[in-house]
Structure formats: C-alpha cells, structure tokens
Write a structure and sequence with these properties.
There is one protein chain. The protein has about 55 residues and is an all-alpha fold. It has a domain of about 30 residues. It contains 2 helices and no strands. Helix 1 runs parallel beside helix 2. It is elongated and about 35 Å long. The N and C termini lie far apart (about 40 Å).
C-alpha cells in the first residue's frame, strides 16, 4: 500500500465500513481513503450486477 487511496480500497475488501477511515477531519488523505473505499465498492457492485445479468 502506497497511499491512502490504496488503503481505502483494501479496507473495503477486508470488510471495513466507510466510517472506519483512520484519517479524520477535512484533509486530502481522508478524501483519498474514502475514494479508494468507494471505488472498491463500485467495482464489487458492478461484478455482482454482471453475474446476476448472466443468469437466466
């Protein structure tokens, strides 16, 4: 993990929730962590949607 974005991305995959962000307050690291977490969630949601679309 090189940055807060990667940390957030991995945090989602480990089952952490958005509120678990270790960076608090209004700062760039918090925004990056949140963005990584949200991107991982979107990626997961899209995969689930794709799998469901393939079912008859």
């Amino acid at each position: 993990m090189n940055n807060a974005y990667d940390e957030g991305f991995q945090a989602f995959r480990q089952g952490l929730v958005l509120a678990d962000n270790p960076y608090q307050g209004e700062n760039e690291k918090k925004r990056q962590w949140d963005a990584g977490w949200e991107d991982a969630k979107i990626e997961t949601d899209l995969k689930k949607r794709s799998i469901c679309a393939d079912k008859p």
